[in-house]
Amino acid sequence: MPAGKVIVIGNEKGGTGKSTLAMHLIVWFLRQGKRVASIDLDGRQGTLTHYIENRADYGEKHRLALGLPEHLTVSVREFPTESERKEDEVAFLYQVEKLKNENDVVVIDTAGADSALFRLAHSSADVLITPINDSLIDLDVLAKVDAESLTVKAPGHYAQTVWQARQKRAAQKRPQTKWFVVRNRTMHVSTRNEKVIWKLLTALGKRINFTPLGGLGERIIFRELFLKGLTLLDLGGGKSQLKLTANTLAARQELRNILHAIGDKTD
């Protein structure tokens, strides 16, 4: 049996919607009948872990058969010694390989800060998905932008981290990571900022080899869903007390466009 695919949700910045996207990916794969495992590398904040716990509680309370992944939470040591760092890396790689051999998909949600395990997760990724808020401030992790011409001057520090992870995979003769950058918290109407961001992402994607994808709008529904452990894919069909509205239908279509774009290019 071939090993499962490792999908990493990564960005060297917090607050970009990584855990929300990770949970939606998990549920999407579960609904396809796949065996899914998940790893929360941000054990201190534990957003994905809490999301999954909320889902289990909601399903039990309402007697609903909500799909759940095989889940692992990892706490990154703040100031590890060299021996502790190596011990953590060996343990992490062992867990990833174990989950790969037991599941079709392993989704890893990373913290919004650099660490040895953060980098190890990136070099383990068959697919990397980077959600980024639709602003020039958040774009800084991916690219240095010229203020006058609004063109890319150089890749940012996170882009360099991804490049190093890809180099490591190449040295190990593993296939190159397929990288997608997903715009998050986009405005519902086209603005000059939106056009500039898309132009910069398109240019940078060609330069450092990632695929930019149209994003998810800023919607309150995501906060409501987190508390219940639900996703947009669970709405309708009697699985939640939340009603389908024009707003949630639009959000679900945005999500499906992203999921299908990723799925079509990584199968």
Give an overview in words.
By secondary structure, the chain is an alpha/beta fold. It is 46% helix and 18% strand. It has a seven-stranded parallel sheet with strand order 3-2-4-1-5-8-9, sandwiched between helices. Strands 6-7 form a two-stranded antiparallel ribbon. Strand 2, helix 2 and strand 3 form a beta-alpha-beta unit. Helix 1 packs across helix 2, helix 3 runs parallel beside helix 4 and helix 4 crosses helix 6. The longest helix has 21 residues. The radius of gyration is 18 Å and the shape is globular. The model has no long low-confidence stretch (mean pLDDT 87).
Give a topology summary.
Blueprint: E1 5-9, H1 18-31, E2 36-40, H2 47-61, E3 70-73, H3 82-102, E4 105-109, H4 116-124, E5 127-133, H5 136-139, E6 143-145, E7 152-155, H6 157-171, E8 178-186, H7 192-208, E9 211-217, H8 221-228, H9 246-266
Parallel strand pairs: 1-4, 1-5, 2-3, 2-4, 5-8, 8-9
Antiparallel strand pairs: 6-7
Task: Name a few traits of the molecule.
18% strand; 9 strands; seven-stranded parallel β-sheet; single chain; globular; 267 residues; alpha/beta; two-stranded antiparallel ribbon
Unreliable runs? none
Largest sheet: 7 strands, parallel
In round numbers, the mean pLDDT is 87
* SSE pattern, N- to C-terminal: EHEHEHEHEHEEHEHEHH
Distance between the termini: 16 Å
Radius of gyration: 18 Å
- The dominant shape is globular
Strand content: 15-25%
How many beta-strand elements?
9
Helix share, percent: 40-55%
Strand order of the largest sheet: 3-2-4-1-5-8-9
